[in-house]
């Protein structure tokens, strides 16, 4: 969009209307307190330009608070927030050049769909022709062009959600903030909306998205990187696949993908192709080492779907246990086995025959599918 | 068995219909019957025969037309003032966080409980000829005459009515504001809307039905206001209720008083009807 297309010569707003270049978001020791109670401990985190960073964590962990600090709805008690290199900590929300989609969509009930989508552009003083084309584009992106004359109350939840996204996109925000945008939808629509957001980001690769959710599958599907918050503190951050494969701590392992954690002791720290030997009860296993010396206590992290009940090529590690529960669910069978004092969950896709509850069971996994995690106290 | 059960069930709706009777009887005795008496006195002259020329003479008289005009002007101006003041106060109380806000809202609420003449009395102490303001000004500048006279004019009545009736706008507005989804306001701000635009395009449309309800109530109350106008006692500021009082008590002209009363009632009911139509349109 050229500057001429903006029509009226309001320079301050021109930048905002035109902004569309990829922007980073930087949290620099950002801390937020409500009435003296610290709910976000000093957070330092960089969101790269054009990336989707998902913030996940249990309820009350401070995800929304972190997002609201970026939006300018809440002022940090300390620390700075940068958007695209500019320090926005002291700017009011309307000067930050951002847009947000919230859980309940917050559409303006007395405005038609088209006016909802045009709202930000009007507020930023864009020219009428620009507004028309942007509204049309934005509604097109979310497939809602034919609904432009409707009122929000005449739309389904999923449609309202699309309008909320269109309203946010129409201003070409530097960063799009999404706070649990799908949590009010039912599971099936949620899945298709996740795919749509992924497609949208593929169409708008310059758009930086900060995506807050407590649904780890949304995060795993969409995010380039994931940040996990717990009790107001950043507990892990990393590329999605890395964080999933090698969670840095117990909380990350359990929260992201519900990993099995078995206490083990490193038996032999001589690395063979990166692998070290550990002992879990009676079983000796080979797993990727983390440089700790022999005798160190660790937690062995292995995902339920990486365990099989049949010895297969490459699945060279074997743990013995006793089967406690078997839940056949059609495509998948969920099993729980007892290994020492721990419970191990298994998700099997193929089973030759349903195993007997209470019987001994052998579980197999590939050394590359497991990792070692420090055994912190109290975490 | 089923026959036994069906019989009383069928009879019951008829009995339920009777519940509407007591309110109707009360309404008829307390409102419709006196109204009919007034209407009768308005039409019947002293001789007891219908006297239409008397009715027309009253409706065409200068005092009546003046009072009608005064009533309309004062009511509209006061209502506009109530809307402006009520809106400003409601916006501040609801959206500008300050520690005393709830207390302030409650204090303003208590205005509703006070008799209207009390505030008028307070006004005479403040702005009257012998009031604090004039006292300070005559002393401070060595004036011979009190310089501030606005209280004894239509402006004084309007000021008093605005003060007394603003809470009737404030209250529904505060209730409406409290129902607005905070995230709508936040999202609007993030989209680039400055506070005034948020007020105009997000908050006010949501509060419009409340403003109309409160404003209509103000209009009704100010059209019928008697105490304030009487207490201020401004020369030439005669409204319909005051004129009715004058005709009935001072001049013992009951026919004219009843004619004007009927006009006043019709005006009130008309305004109320308009308000209901507006409320239904906007509320639907
Ligand atoms: N306005 C507020 N006043 C006081 N405390 C607040 C306020 N908003 C949030 N909190 C507190 O801050 C903490 C973090 O809240 P936040 O909304 O950021 O959590 P969250 O991670 O988004 O949780 P959820 O998944 O339930 O949305 C919570 O303990 C919450 O009670
Ligand atoms: Mg939240």
Describe it:
The complex is a heterodimer of chains A (379) and B (284). Chain A is an alpha+beta fold. Chain A has nine helices and 19 strands. In chain A, helix 3 packs across helix 4, helix 3 runs parallel beside helix 5 and helix 4 packs across helix 5. Chain A is elongated and about 75 Å long. Chain B is an all-alpha fold and 284 residues long. The longest helix of chain B is centred in the first third of the chain and has 34 residues. The N terminus of chain B is likely disordered. Classes of the chains: A alpha+beta (379), B mainly alpha (284). The interface between A and B is medium-sized, with 28 and 17 residues. Adenosine-5'-triphosphate binds next to helix 2 of chain A.
Summarize the structure.
Helices cover 24% and strands 35% of the residues of chain A. Chain A has 379 residues and is α+β, with helices and mostly antiparallel strands. The termini of chain A are far apart.
Going across the major beta sheet of chain A, what is the strand order? 6-7-8-3-9-10
Mean pLDDT of chain B: 85
Percentage beta strand of chain B: under 5%
Which ranges of chain B are low-confidence, i.e. pLDDT below 50, for 5 or more consecutive residues? 1-11
* Residue runs with pLDDT of under 50 for 5 or more positions of chain A: 1-19
Helix content of chain A: 10-25%
Q: Mean pLDDT of chain A, as a whole number?
A: 86
* Tally of domains of chain B: 1
Just give the CATH class of the largest domain in chain A.
Alpha Beta
């Amino acid at each position: 969009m050229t500057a001429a297309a903006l029509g009226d010569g309001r320079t301050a707003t021109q930048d905002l209307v035109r902004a569309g270049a990829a922007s980073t978001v930087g949290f620099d020791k950002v801390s937020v307190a409500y009435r003296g109670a610290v709910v976000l401990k000093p957070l330092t985190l960089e969101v790269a330009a054009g990336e989707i960073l998902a913030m996940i964590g249990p309820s009350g962990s401070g995800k929304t608070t972190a997002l609201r600090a970026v939006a300018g709805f809440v002022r940090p008690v300390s620390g700075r927030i940068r958007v695209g290199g500019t320090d926005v900590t002291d700017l009011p929300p309307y000067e930050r050049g951002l847009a947000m989609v919230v859980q309940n969509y917050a559409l303006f009930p007395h405005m038609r769909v088209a006016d909802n989508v045009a709202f930000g552009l009007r507020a930023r003083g864009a020219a009428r022709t620009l507004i028309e084309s942007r509204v049309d584009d934005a509604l097109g992106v979310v497939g809602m062009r034919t609904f432009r004359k409707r009122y929000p109350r005449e739309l389904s939840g999923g449609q309202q959600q699309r309008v909320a996204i269109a309203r946010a996109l129409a201003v070409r925000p530097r960063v799009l903030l999404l706070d649990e945008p799908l949590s009010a939808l039912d599971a099936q629509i949620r899945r298709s909306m996740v795919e749509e957001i992924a497609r949208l980001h593929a169409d708008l690769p310059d758009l930086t998205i900060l995506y807050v959710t407590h649904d780890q599958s949304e995060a795993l599907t969409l995010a380039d990187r994931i940040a996990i918050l717990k009790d107001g503190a950043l507990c892990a951050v990393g590329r999605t696949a890395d964080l999933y494969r090698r969670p840095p701590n117990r909380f990350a392992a359990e929260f992201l993908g519900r990993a099995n954690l078995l206490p083990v002791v490193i038996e032999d720290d001589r690395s063979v192709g990166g692998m070290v030997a550990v002992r879990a009860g009676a079983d000796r296993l080979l797993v990727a080492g983390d440089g700790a010396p022999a005798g160190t206590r660790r937690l062995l992290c292995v995902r339920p779907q990486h365990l099989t009940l049949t010895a297969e090529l490459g699945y060279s590690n074997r743990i013995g246990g006793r089967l406690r529960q078997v839940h056949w669910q059609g495509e998948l069978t969920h099993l729980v086995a007892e290994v020492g004092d721990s419970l191990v969950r298994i998700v099997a896709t193929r089973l030759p025959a349903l195993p007997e509850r209470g019987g001994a069971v052998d579980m197999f996994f590939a050394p590359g599918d497991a990792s070692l995690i420090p055994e912190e106290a109290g975490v | 068995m089923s026959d036994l059960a069906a019989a009383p069930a069928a009879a019951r709706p008829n009995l339920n219909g009777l519940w509407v009777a007591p309110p109707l009887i009360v309404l008829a005795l307390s409102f419709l019957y006196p109204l009919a008496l007034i209407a009768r006195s308005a039409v019947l002259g002293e001789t007891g025969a219908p006297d239409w020329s008397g009715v027309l003479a009253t409706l065409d008289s200068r005092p009546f037309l003046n009072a009608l005009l005064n009533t309309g002007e004062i009511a509209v101006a006061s209502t506009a003032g109530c809307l402006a003041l009520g809106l400003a106060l409601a916006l501040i109380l609801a959206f500008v966080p300050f520690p005393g806000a709830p207390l302030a809202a409650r204090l303003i609420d208590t205005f509703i409980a006070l008799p209207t003449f009390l505030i008028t009395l307070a006004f005479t102490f403040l702005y009257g000829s012998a009031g604090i303001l004039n006292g300070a000004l005559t002393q401070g500048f060595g004036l011979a005459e009190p310089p501030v006279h606005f209280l004894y004019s239509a402006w004084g009545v309007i000021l008093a009515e605005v003060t007394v009736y603003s809470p009737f706008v404030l209250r529904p507005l505060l209730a409406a504001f409290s129902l607005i989804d905070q995230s709508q306001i936040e999202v609007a701000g993030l989209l680039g809307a400055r506070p005034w635009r948020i007020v105009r395009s997000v908050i006010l449309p949501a509060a419009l039905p409340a403003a109309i309800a409160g404003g209509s109530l103000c209009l009704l109350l100010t059209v019928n206001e008697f105490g304030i106008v009487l207490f201020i006692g401004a020369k030439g500021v005669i409204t319909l209720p005051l004129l009715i009082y004058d005709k009935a008590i001072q001049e013992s002209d009951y026919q004219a008083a009843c004619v004007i009363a009927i006009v006043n009632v019709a005006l009130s009911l008309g305004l109320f009807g308009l308000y209901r139509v507006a409320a239904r349109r906007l509320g639907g």
